[in-house]
């Protein structure tokens, strides 16, 4: 299993980053580098945390508007995404492009780590829990892969429009922006523990 783990790690670290962004988020690059520098671990995916406004369009994803940076994902159009603090005016502007059911989300830091042995995973789990990532967990796959997911529970998911009609006022969007930014600050504190 040791040799197999080494091959998995080498293959994973040599692969191109296929994430939507195409690179590790700068805010957590030091964490990813530290984990990958240890012989008993390697990261398979990560996100530093983000605020997202998506348009859920049902059975088909709509094409982005000409000249926009809308990103399609399954049955969604991404109207806004930020891995840093979000500005209410950016959310208001993005929400104006909604033509379906817009949902504002804050998604906290997540890190998926493959571990060489179960005790390595248990150590990583203990570190994650002590840093405040209380929703973290270990899984052991059929092939013997030991995966550790570092996660927390401080998420936010709020519908803002229905069939393209905005359901809330700008004051509420400002409130949500502040709330998401507070969650991002807590997110950063936990990562630095």
Automatic annotation (TrEMBL):
GO molecular function, one term: methyltransferase activity
Record key words, sorted: Methyltransferase, S-adenosyl-L-methionine, Transferase, tRNA processing
EC code(s) of this entry: 2.1.1.282
An example Gene Ontology biological process: tRNA processing
Every tRNA wybutosine-synthesizing protein domain range: 8-193
Pathway(s) the chain acts in: tRNA modification; wybutosine-tRNA(Phe) biosynthesis
Classification via SUPFAM superfamilies: SSo0622-like
Keyword hit for Transferase: yes
Catalytic activity: 4-demethyl-7-[(3S)-3-amino-3-carboxypropyl]wyosine(37) in tRNA(Phe) + S-adenosyl-L-methionine = 7-[(3S)-3-amino-3-carboxypropyl]wyosine(37) in tRNA(Phe) + S-adenosyl-L-homocysteine + H(+)
Domain of life: Eukaryota
Pfam families recorded: TYW3 (PF02676)
Function description: Probable S-adenosyl-L-methionine-dependent methyltransferase that acts as a component of the wybutosine biosynthesis pathway. Wybutosine is a hyper modified guanosine with a tricyclic base found at the 3'-position adjacent to the anticodon of eukaryotic phenylalanine tRNA.
Recorded family membership: Belongs to the TYW3 family.
Annotated protein name in UniProt: tRNA wybutosine-synthesizing protein 3 homolog
